[in-house]
Design brief:
The complex is a heterodimer of chains A (about 100) and B (about 160).
Chain A lengths: L2 H22 L5 H26 L5 H26 L10
Helix pairs in contact in A: 1-2, 1-3, 2-3
Chain B lengths: L2 H16 L4 H22 L5 H22 L2 E2 L2 H19 L5 H32 L5 H10 L2 E2 L13
The chains are: A mainly alpha (about 100), B mainly alpha (about 160).
């Protein structure tokens, strides 16, 4: 597979993962939707090989789409959760 | 036709019979049946990544319920239906991660299908019982029917204004 085929497969999986994720976790606003979409697609492009290494999957087209779908769906929820935790006032380093 | 499909067909027929006067329930039964037929045809044809395809179709149905409830007005009983489709999406995602076997996946989707059918059948049978029993016979049921028929408030994020702190 060429690099462009790999990128196209990851973007396909990322788009599918975003559609799946918007049905489960809805953003609060339209800007929030676009932010989450950007983060999901970027994560699908960058973090797919990490998940595939972790799961021990071979680099076939099917596995690329499946892994990037999972990454996008997790990123949709996970990065926002991380931001919420980091900005929370109930953390020990934020207590005054 | 396998016995499981036959049982689902009987459940579908029962749900259609009790909700003949409820156009929205008939619409969701039609959409759910189309969903089932398309996804099972895709899987039976041996095409690749059928959990991914199933998750996409189920998610589209979720988004359809969301949009229809927002613009045409939804009732409370449609929200558990939405949750059942979300559950179906989650089962497909779990299968996609290879965390469940094909047998467990089929079983879990069957459970989700029966949940959707029971939501619609339950709504229909309660309304029917309320009409047959009439007013003043069983107030609990009457209140319940009013509760599940109450308008559901669905806010779409593309109309919400961002909150500026």
């Amino acid at each position: 597979m060429t690099i462009w085929e790999i990128v196209a497969l990851r973007l396909t999986g990322g788009a599918g993962g975003s559609i799946i994720a918007v049905a489960i976790v809805q953003p609060n606003t339209l800007p929030g939707f676009f932010k989450r979409l950007l983060v999901s697609m970027t994560s699908a492009l960058m973090l797919t090989p990490v998940l595939m290494d972790y799961l021990g999957w071979l680099q076939t087209p099917d596995n690329l789409v499946a892994a990037s779908c999972i990454v996008a769906a997790l990123a949709w929820w996970g990065w926002h959760a991380a931001i919420r935790i980091a900005q929370s006032d109930k953390l020990p380093w934020r207590k005054e | 036709m396998s016995p499981f499909e036959l049982a689902l067909l009987c459940g579908l027929a029962a749900a259609v019979i009790v909700s003949l006067n409820n156009a929205r329930a008939l619409l969701w039964l039609l959409v759910g049946t189309a969903d089932y037929l398309i996804t099972s045809a895709y899987a039976d044809a041996g095409l690749p990544l059928h959990p991914f395809f199933t998750a996409l179709v189920d998610a589209s149905v979720c988004i359809l319920i969301y949009i229809v409830c927002r613009f045409r007005g939804g009732q409370k009983w449609e929200l558990p239906l939405y949750s059942a489709f979300q559950l179906s999406v989650l089962f497909s995602l779990i299968r996609l991660c290879d965390l469940s076997t094909a047998y467990q996946y089929a079983t879990s989707l069957e459970i989700a299908n029966w949940l959707m059918l029971s939501v619609i059948f339950g709504t229909g049978i309660m309304r029917l019982a309320d009409v047959i029993l009439g007013d003043g016979h069983w107030r609990g049921l009457h209140r319940l029917v009013h509760l599940i028929g109450a308008p559901a408030k669905v806010n779409t994020f593309w109309f919400a204004k961002p909150i500026l702190a």
